[in-house]
Automatic annotation (TrEMBL):
CDD domains: NAD_bind_Glutamyl_tRNA_reduct (cd05213). It comes from Pisum sativum (Garden pea). InterPro entries: 4pyrrol_synth_GluRdtase, 4pyrrol_synth_GluRdtase_dimer, 4pyrrol_synth_GluRdtase_N, GluRdtase_CS, GluRdtase_dimer_dom_sf, GluRdtase_N_sf, NAD(P)-bd_dom_sf, Shikm_DH/Glu-tRNA_Rdtase. It comes from the Eukaryota. It catalyses: (S)-4-amino-5-oxopentanoate + tRNA(Glu) + NADP(+) = L-glutamyl-tRNA(Glu) + NADPH + H(+). Pathway: Porphyrin-containing compound metabolism; protoporphyrin-IX biosynthesis; 5-aminolevulinate from L-glutamyl-tRNA(Glu): step 1/2. This is Glutamyl-tRNA reductase. Residues 93-243 form the Glutamyl-tRNA reductase N-terminal domain. Residues 415-520 form the Tetrapyrrole biosynthesis glutamyl-tRNA reductase dimerisation domain.
Length: 539
């Protein structure tokens, strides 16, 4: 699937959705249209407005008060219709390693500890109801449930621009935008490892799981988004189990090791090049393991604390792993031929002024020190690469290694797409079934009110001598049983979860029919109410 279903124009012009969306918070459609109706009257021209194929014509020149009221009511109905007929949308807006340089991605990267704060800020926007953040070394993606597609996208893009300091015009060159089914399929592909720089790598599945873990209890990580990510985890597991796509697949860490060994001179063996790993987290640990697998018997590991390094040392036998504190990092860099960096620091740890006075790398390494930086934001400043004595590589340079065994995984990816398509259909059916939930609740509430009223009438007609708790309970249970049996059929026809042959259109027809028969519809749609409430909450 093409990831860049872009909705944006070039940097020189304003993004498409910014041109076509109001820059101010959306007021209630009713009050908005009422306020502006006089404008059309003064122009004394016929107003034609199309809403989902239906055309409403308002003749402002008519002198009839009744006609004016009718026209106003039509406009109100038309405006509300926009929210009633078009349900909220799942949208993903983001950047990926495939199209965006690391220089830009690192400015938008959000540390995991900040994900709940970001969700809160995003859900504070007028047209965003739910949100999640997936920020890794290869991607920065924001998933939202938008009450209005265009306004929601505009608000999120402005938020991204504000938090990163990158102008929206510059962001528009790189952002991709996907809606609903395409957004669902994209996340499923991400979780399955199909969209990774290293196809089939397993770390992204752990990162998707972390999104769910970080979102637990966070206001704004709601039913739609949490359901989407939980389903994505299921898809990721199923693809890896049924297609074997991860077999033989390299990871970002292993690709970093391969790249470093490719760039060392021929005379530098795996055993005699002096290796330094800065950071002993998940990525650093994998780098160490891959170095050992390539024959490295000795390395220095710099970390904030020794505890993690000691745990790695206990896990890996017959290898000398020397711990050094962060305060000795630059001294260790001066004694290394190859430096791997993988810390969560938001600012560069190594700059040009730190490196230019250091001694050259060893003769075996060609007297040129290699930095392989797999962190986002980067740990090694881009200015370091200006020095003749060093060469700096980052995650974007790993494509050279990844291309080698891509053909076999492409074949497995085709098998994975069959699973993803099936799972996408199941998720969409589940989400569509949520549309009938308000009707189910209202129908049950309506039936319960009738039941309680009739039970009270019945008990009121009975003499006090004949009424005891046992009798009251018998009457109450009888009425509940009748109501539940009466509602069973309608409730069954309001459920569409993909488990039976009933189509969504049939379910929605049943929902609208019940709404009409029992007068369950409200004047203002749920989405309209949510938007109005958000606007009214603003200080």
């Amino acid at each position: 699937m093409a990831v860049s279903t872009s909705f944006f124009s070039s940097a020189k012009s304003e993004p498409f959705f910014l041109k076509h969306c109001s820059s101010s918070p959306s007021p209630s459609s009713f009050s908005y249209l009422t306020t502006h109706l006089s404008f059309y009257g003064r122009n004394r021209k016929s107003l034609v407005q199309s809403q989902k194929g239906s055309i409403i014509r308002c003749d402002a020149s008519s002198s009839s008060d009744a006609n004016s009221v009718s026209a106003l009511q039509q406009l109100k109905t038309s405006a509300a219709d926009r929210y009633t007929k078009e349900k909220s949308s799942i949208v993903v807006i983001g950047l990926s390693v495939h199209t965006t340089p690391v220089e830009l991605r690192e400015k938008l990267a959000i540390p995991e500890a900040e994900w709940p704060r970001a969700i809160g800020e995003l859900c504070g926007l007028n047209h965003i109801e739910e949100a999640a953040v997936l920020s890794t070394c290869n991607r920065m993606e924001i998933y939202v449930v938008a009450l209005s597609q265009h306004r929601g996208v505009k608000e999120v893009t402005e938020w991204m621009s504000y938090t990163s300091g990158i102008p929206a015009s510059e962001l528009s060159q790189y952002l991709f935008l996907l809606y609903n089914k395409d957004a669902t399929q994209h996340l499923f592909e991400v979780s399955a490892g199909l969209d990774s720089l290293v196809m089939g790598e397993g770390q992204i599945l752990a990162q998707v799981k972390q999104v769910v873990k970080a979102g637990q209890g966070v206001n704004g990580f709601g039913r739609n988004i949490s359901g989407l990510f939980k389903h994505a985890i299921t898809v990721g597991k199923r693809v890896r189990t049924e297609t074997n796509i991860a077999a033989g697949a390299v990871s970002v860490s292993s690709a970093a090791v391969e790249l470093a060994l490719m760039k060392l001179p021929d005379q530098a063996s795996h055993g005699n090049a002096r290796m330094l790993v800065i950071g002993a987290g998940k990525m650093g640990k994998l780098v160490i393991k891959h170095l050992v697998a390539k024959g490295c018997k000795k390395m220095v590991v710099v970390n904030r604390t020794e505890e993690r390094v000691a745990a790695i040392r206990d896990e890996i036998n017959d290898v000398e792993i020397i711990y050094k504190p962060l305060s000795e990092m630059l001294e260790c860099v001066g004694e290394a031929d190859v430096v791997f960096t993988s810390t969560a620091s938001e600012n560069p740890l190594i700059l040009k002024q730190h490196v230019k006075e250091l001694p050259f790398a060893s003769e075996e390494a060609g007297r040129k020190r290699l930095f392989v930086d797999i962190s986002v934001p980067r740990n090694v400043g881009s200015c370091v690469d200006d020095l003749e004595s060093v060469k700096v590589y980052n995650v974007d340079d790993l494509k050279e290694v990844v291309a080698a065994n891509k053909e076999d995984r492409q074949r497995k990816a085709m098998e994975a797409q069959v699973i993803i398509s099936e799972e996408s259909g199941q998720f969409e059916a589940w989400r569509d079934s949520l549309e009938t939930v308000p009707t189910i609740k209202k129908l049950r509430g309506y039936a319960e009110r009738l039941r309680v009223g009739e039970v009270e009438k019945c008990l009121g007609k009975m003499s006090d001598d004949n009424i005891n708790k046992k009798t009251q309970k018998a009457v109450d249970d009888l009425s509940k049983g009748i109501v539940n049996k009466m509602l069973h059929g309608p409730m069954q026809h309001l459920r569409c979860d993909g488990s039976d042959s009933r189509t969504l259109s049939e379910t929605l027809e049943n929902m609208h029919a019940l709404n009409r028969m029992f007068s369950l519809e409200t004047e203002v749609s749920v989405l309209e109410q949510k938007i109005r409430a958000k606007v009214e909450q603003k200080p």
